[in-house]
């Protein structure tokens, strides 16, 4: 037994300051044999246009509306929205002390509140068979523009008193992640309250700022960018950095964040927007190249809440918020073996085998020429 602690071999816990939780790391388990579930690798070859696809240009959607023959990014209100604006008010249930003292604790334990908001679908590209990973940076600029446009529109409406508080932009890629349509698309859900995950982050970032006087994610970006050997850095350009963060849960989880303090997408300069598109394209391409498969993930953008009418900025957390993007991919060892959060992870605390440093090294080693394009180039050479 070695007398010095080895983070690449010895079990340990890592602190997650964004969630104020811990992650158990068990790197010595990476060599264990796998006899569990293996996914079937996708062998489906999609056409450029899907005649039955409700997201393709010119096609009829499920509720009867027809898409325009769009040639870039296309946005529409979700036909099956998770939240809606037009519904009766139902204020947050407050504990009734008199009832509680009388023995009726239903108001304490059975609490609820109504939620209002809007949901949008963003078709990234008209091509049915092209994912973000296969789009070059310039083709991602219309996607980022759509994200900005929706956020800006809802921010204006919130400032006028409409019930919009938080804009959650996300993409579920692949049927493994529950994606119901392979056409490249993402979603935007806007709610009249701040959801649990970004709310937890804002709470902990506020506590960090109060205690240390600086931004948690600004400090973290600077730390990772200046670390000797940059062991967790996957990609970096002048404005952005991608890391397999110290406290990551998923095997190849990454955090993409700007190097300067930027509360929301609307605060990006033109140059930062271009470099954002560049690093998004490069990261998603590396994901696909890791196991030479269309790499599934859930991606989400966290940024400043919307400023409500008559509220101060600090009350809404917009001065604390630091724009960042989470990528949560489930694949573990190959295109067919995935990570599940079960057992100890559900009942105890989050656990991982592959350390973030190991994951970052593997992603850094990936080519940035998409594996599909390499096959085509090889065929052309023959």
TrEMBL record:
GO terms for molecular function: UDP-glucose:hexose-1-phosphate uridylyltransferase activity; zinc ion binding. It catalyses: alpha-D-galactose 1-phosphate + UDP-alpha-D-glucose = alpha-D-glucose 1-phosphate + UDP-alpha-D-galactose. Its cofactor is Fe cation; Zn(2+). Binds 1 Fe cation per subunit. Binds 1 zinc ion per subunit. Its EC number is 2.7.7.12. Fe cation binds at residues 201, 302, 324, 326. Zn(2+) binds at residues 53, 56, 128, 183. One of its GO terms (cellular component) is cytoplasm. PROSITE patterns: GAL_P_UDP_TRANSF_I, HIT_2. UDP-alpha-D-glucose binds at residues 29-32, 62, 78-79, 172, 178-180, 187, 339-340, 344-345, 351. Pfam families: GalP_UDP_tr_C (PF02744), GalP_UDP_transf (PF01087). Keywords: Carbohydrate metabolism, Galactose metabolism, Iron, Metal-binding, Nucleotidyltransferase, Transferase, Zinc. The active site is at residue 185. Gene3D superfamilies: HIT-like. The keyword Iron applies. Residues 216-337 form the HIT domain. Pathway: Carbohydrate metabolism; galactose metabolism. The keyword Zinc applies. GO terms for biological process: galactose catabolic process via UDP-galactose, Leloir pathway. Belongs to the galactose-1-phosphate uridylyltransferase type 1 family. This is Galactose-1-phosphate uridylyltransferase. It comes from Saitoella complicata (strain BCRC 22490 / CBS 7301 / JCM 7358 / NBRC 10748 / NRRL Y-17804).
């Amino acid at each position: 037994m070695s007398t010095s602690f080895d983070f690449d071999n010895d079990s340990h816990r890592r602190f997650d300051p964004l969630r104020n939780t811990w992650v158990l790391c068990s790197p010595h388990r990476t060599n264990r044999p796998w006899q569990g579930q293996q996914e079937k690798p996708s062998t489906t070859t999609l056409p450029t246009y899907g005649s039955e696809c409700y997201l393709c240009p010119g096609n009829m959607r499920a509720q009867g509306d027809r898409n325009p023959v769009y040639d870039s990014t296309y946005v529409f209100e979700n036909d099956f929205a998770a939240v809606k604006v037009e519904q009766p008010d139902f204020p947050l249930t407050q504990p009734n002390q008199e009832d509680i003292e009388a023995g009726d604790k239903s108001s304490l334990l059975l609490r609820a509140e109504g939620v209002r908001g809007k949901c949008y679908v963003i078709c990234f590209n008209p091509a049915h068979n092209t994912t973000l990973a296969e789009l070059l940076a310039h083709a991602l600029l219309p996607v980022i523009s759509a994200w900005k446009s929706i956020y800006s529109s809802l921010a204006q409406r919130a400032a006028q008193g409409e019930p919009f508080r938080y804009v959650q932009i996300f993409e579920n890629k692949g049927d493994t992640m529950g994606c119901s349509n392979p056409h490249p698309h993402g979603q935007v859900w806007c709610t009249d309250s701040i959801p649990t995950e970004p709310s937890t982050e804002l709470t902990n970032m506020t506590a960090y700022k109060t205690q240390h006087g600086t931004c948690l994610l600004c400090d973290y970006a600077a730390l990772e960018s200046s670390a000797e050997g940059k062991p967790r850095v996957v990609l970096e350009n002048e404005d952005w950095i991608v890391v397999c963060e110290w406290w990551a849960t998923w095997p190849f989880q990454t955090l993409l964040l700007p190097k300067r303090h930027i509360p929301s997408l609307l605060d990006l300069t033109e140059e930062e927007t271009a470099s954002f598109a560049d690093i998004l394209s490069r990261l998603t391409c590396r994901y696909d190249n890791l196991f030479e498969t269309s790499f599934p993930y859930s991606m989400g953008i966290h940024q400043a809440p919307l400023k409500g009418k008559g509220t101060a900025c600090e009350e809404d957390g917009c001065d604390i918020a630091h724009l960042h993007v989470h990528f949560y991919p489930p694949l573990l060892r190959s295109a067919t073996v995935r990570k599940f959060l079960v057992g100890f992870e559900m009942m105890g605390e989050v656990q991982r085998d592959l350390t973030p440093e190991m994951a970052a090294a593997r992603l850094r080693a990936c080519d940035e020429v998409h594996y599909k394009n390499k096959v085509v180039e090889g065929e052309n050479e023959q």
